[in-house]
Amino acid sequence: MNSEAVLHHAASACANCGATVSGNFCHECGQATVLHPPSTREFLHEFIGHYVALEGKLLQTMKLLLFKPGQLSLEYLHGRRVRYIEPLRVYLSFSLIFFAVFKFMGEDHHIGDVKLKGVPVVQVDPQDKKHAAPAPAARLEASTSARPDENEGDDKAADADKAPNDRDEEKSGFEALIEKIVDAATDEDGARFKKAFFGYAPYAVFAMMPLFALFLKILYLGSGKRYGEHLLFALHTNAFAFLMLALILLTPAVIPFAGKLLFLWLAFYLPIAMRRVYGGSRKLTALRWGVLMFLHLTALTVAIAGTVGIGASH
What element of type H or E holds 116? Predict the structure, then answer.
């Protein structure tokens, strides 16, 4: 008798746990009793069915997560769990997608040019003396009428005679900030902090998840909900946030208002989910949402700054 025939023979004892079985599956551990050499088709089915969960679970999960804020958490709390992907897997999947997109678009590649009032800011090599000084940003206000040719030379000479501080004062705060970021990215310290940010910031965001649930616990004292229920809600809402942020980064600028619509849905999603899961009036929910956002963003900023600072110092 060859080995394949033995594998196809139904065993009287489970090969995994040793329990006595009768039927196609073990009643103790659930493993199949009829074994055979694995095929490529079975490996693909296992990957798609159990890890990507395309057999209905992904569609059902995405439908509730995207379009019914808080409903996925309620389904889980009410015991309807098998039809959806597990909360932790949803959170980890979408957070990893976001950080991959964020790292790809922000660190390894340049998507277009950064523009200041219509003039592209070009990142230059600090060792190139010909382009060592960054080009000044365009003026905030552009003249709508053409200047006479005889006055154009005088205007340019007047601009050239201005002190550097006078020219800096004409720039808006946003323009000055962007120029500083561009200049910082060209030196060694800026590159080190940039590398530390992309390397350590994801860990800080992951570490904030239990703290986010703790903030919810404090804000909803007396609701009767346990910390685990708040953590479940935090996993679902933050998974949605990661997914929306990834879509915002990937949305082409040529699609009118697409990014703004996604951002608006991201902003309104959390208070709607909070009211659906926890109840309460709109005013009280809005107040709790404001406090939650302040606490979370403050803690997140401190955590990211701390981890990036520690990473850059090594």
Answer: strand 114-116
